[in-house]
Design goal:
five-stranded mixed beta sheet; alpha/beta
């Protein structure tokens, strides 16, 4: 019989929580064996507003999972989708004067920049640190140049920060469930790693469109450098069409699923009467619906990336966009319109991708927990030497 290792995951998203149970066999092959969606009203506006309610619901469901598998979990991996994040990119340097770059130099830069973040961002705590860029004598280098010689070395680090109180609330809930947090991962980080592994590139944007929310994140040199959430989604498009045409939103959704909209639609073609199941038929031109969709998508694309002042520099570094429309509705024409709008503006190369399967994402998350990520930096704690130790070091070193 195979020796199986069970892992418990908790995803915190916009609507609540999802508990997953996965298994790793002796060959480290991952398999998702259980999933439980838990909508929670106590997790609102990216904050836990009802600590006690959330704790009781999670505690109860974790207990039921443990009973189901006859297994007591001691650790859990947290995956955050809905966190209000701050990204700070800082550059540290070291004058070498022709000497060799040592590991201690890299550690010094990392710890110095981290201490500056800790000093000034009192309401935030660091969740991830990424090595984004390395420069030796003004030349960009792909990896940490330990062992190379030069005159001047600089290194850019990207810090992902989360609200310190929100982070504390999450940790308190998990601790009260008698679990230890093994690792906290941003879902965008996991998704970005999946894109890197599947597409052999390291710099790109990903845009996710939900029903009532949207998200954009940016990877550069295998490092997550920026993420921004927006409180609008494809539901806004459905609302626009419903308001202008006086159709019910259910009818609009059915029309979007059944009809392929594009700029080639004739001005005279009407929406078929068979799509009006729960209301009286109205003569509506397909072209009108297409123009409503296009106008709104164009506006939202400008807000998210094209005229987003937070991305003024980033859009010069890559034209690659991965677009995910996260909906149970099969709205292929909406994907095509999004792709057309982004492609026609700034000549972006847009790839429409499907929602990642849970098992695929969790397998990637597990590898990040076990082996880390090539560009994720880990601060090193240096111990203070005693006066006597420093005295002998001066003599013998």
């Amino acid at each position: 019989m195979e020796n199986l290792s069970r892992i418990l995951f908790l995803e915190v998203n916009y609507s609540g929580f999802i508990l997953f149970v996965g298994e790793n066999d002796e060959r480290n092959n991952f398999k998702l064996i259980f999933k439980l969606d838990i909508p929670i009203a106590g997790n609102e506006n990216d904050k836990i507003s009802d600590f006690e309610k959330v704790f009781k619901i999670l505690k109860k469901n974790i207990y039921l999972i443990e009973q189901k598998f006859n297994h007591t979990f001691k650790e859990i991996v947290l995956i955050l989708e809905n966190s209000d994040l701050t990204f700070i990119n800082l550059c540290g340097y070291k004058k070498l004067n022709g000497s060799q770059i040592l590991r201690e130099n890299i550690t010094y830069i990392l710890n110095t920049l981290k201490s500056n973040i800790d000093k000034f961002e009192l309401k935030k705590t660091i969740l991830h640190i990424f090595n984004s860029n390395f420069f030796l004598d003004n030349k960009n280098i792909d990896t940490v140049p330990i062992g190379l010689f030069g005159d001047f070395y600089s290194q850019e680090l990207s810090f992902a920060l989360i609200d310190i109180n929100y982070n504390k609330n999450l940790k308190d809930i998990i601790a009260n469930c008698n679990l230890k947090i093994k690792k906290i991962l941003l879902k965008s980080f996991i998704e970005g790693v999946n894109i890197i592994n599947n597409n052999n590139l390291n710099t790109f944007f990903k845009i996710k469109i939900f029903k009532e929310r949207s998200k954009i994140f940016y990877f550069q040199n295998n490092s997550l450098k920026f993420q921004q959430d927006f409180k609008f989604g494809f539901e806004m498009i459905i609302n626009d069409i419903s308001k202008i045409t006086s159709l019910k939103k259910e009818t609009v959704a059915k029309i979007l699923e059944e009809i392929e909209f594009s700029d080639e639609i004739s001005d005279e073609k009407l929406v078929d009467e068979s799509l009006f199941e729960k209301e009286n038929y109205i003569k509506i031109k397909k072209k009108l619906i297409y123009e409503i969709i296009f106008a709104r998508v164009k506006e939202l694309s400008e807000i998210m990336i094209l005229k987003n002042i937070n991305l003024t520099h980033q859009i010069r570094t890559t034209n690659k966009i991965f677009l995910e429309l996260n909906t149970k509705l099969e709205i292929n024409s909406l994907k095509k319109i999004y792709k057309s709008v982004f492609s026609n503006n700034s000549n972006f190369d847009v790839n429409c991708i499907d929602h990642f399967f849970d098992e695929n994402l969790l397998s990637t998350a597990m590898k990040l927990v076990q082996y880390g990520w090539k560009n994720e930096a880990i601060p090193v704690t240096t111990t203070q030497k005693s006066i006597i130790a420093r005295f002998f070091n001066r003599i013998f070193d």
